[in-house]
Amino acid sequence: MIGAAGEPIARPRLLLTGDASARPxxxxxxxxxxxxxxxxxxxxxxxxxxxxxxxxxxxADAERLRHLLADAAAEPPCIVVFAAEDRDGPAAAxxxxxxxxxxxxxxxxxxxxxxTARIRERQAPSRTPYEARxxxxxxxxVEEARSLLQPDEVALALVRRLxxxxxxxxxxxxxxxxGNDEGRVIxxxxxxxxxxxxxxxxxxxxxxxxxxxxxxxSMPDTGGAAAAGSTLVILPVVVQEEVPAVLLMRGQESxxxxxxxxxxxxxxxxxxxxxxxxxxxxxxxxxxxxLTSPTLDRRLQEELERARRYSxxxxxxxxxxxxxxDDDPADPExxxxxxxxxxxxxxxxxxxxxxxxxxxxxxxxxVLPETGADxxxxxxxxxxxxLPGVSAGxxxxxxxxxTAPDDMFALVEAALRRGQSQSRERIGVAE
Length: 431
What we know:
Blueprint: E1 13-18, H1 27-33, E2 37-39, E3 52-57, H2 62-68, E4 78-82, H3 89-95, E5 100-103, H4 108-123, H5 131-146, H6 151-165, E6 168-175, E7 182-188, E8 196-200, H7 205-213, E9 217-220, E10 231-239, E11 242-251, H8 260-277, H9 294-310, E12 314-320, H10 332-349, E13 355-359, E14 363-369, H11 373-386, E15 391-397, H12 405-421, E16 427-429
Parallel strand pairs: 1-2, 1-3, 3-4, 4-5, 15-16
Antiparallel strand pairs: 6-7, 6-11, 7-8, 9-10, 10-11, 12-14, 12-15, 13-14
Helix pairs in contact: 5-8, 6-8
């Protein structure tokens, strides 16, 4: 799913509850195709809440509705769908606190549009998604983006997102450590392109104080006429008991002060950006398997569970970037740029529900929901029109040898080796 500025955003998480027998035919498929991540297990106390709840009921039972909507005034919004043609049912649900309600016959595209609207309306007052979900999605974004982008680009994208989310006039991430004389700045000035600069910390003792004390500092901004009447917030970014960076934020003159929740969001995002710039730590892919993104592992586990629950198919594709004639193995920057270009091309060509992630040193893994082996092969052939020369391996579920995500990885790696050994199509399919 792509935001207004062209950056990828997390799929909205939707909790399905109520009676499964009352769900309209094709509901789960329509929700997935509309870009929702569908779940049926209520999050635990330490997990982020879903963006919305969709409850399906056979009819408008007053007692059942009261129990279901007891906490409907709190986030997330609850939308109720009745399987029976009941003109009074939606009114009863709305009166008890439902964010929206529909009765049969249900037009699924309309339902998806209503869900999106209710989520947007609930998020609008705070100008940002729920803090807990944002933290989780930012971690996923950094894990995925780290394999496709340079660390500077990851941090810059995150800082820009924060500037837009909080409607800041200025936002800078300053990389520094105690005792350093200089800081490295990544800045966001509304629509002005960001630049990397060096900051003489001797001229800004407030930054040194924040690094030493690990306390947020708010002060009148004296940066010139454009800053008159505004407040500058300097927020420490704590990573593994150190302060490798501070976040400088200046709101618009007419805007109210940043709330505690907004500062918490800013701290989470800045920590993610600082980790990306500071090198981060890769995820162990397990014995005999290349390093993979935790986001890829989690997504594959989710698709496997969903396919089992609803008797669906899905495919895992592994693409290998064959070396080009002008590739220089001694030039890691050129190779990294090529990976970025390939990753961007894959995202443009794939469907909204599809997922792509870096895999190992020169490969990409793609998860294709509700796609069998034949559909995955067609997708690879279409991608190869844009990326000539790639080899591919395909593993499709259901498969008798698959009981866990690692089984899918083993199958797709073997399929890729078969594809690489071919002289023509260079696409291997797990048998």
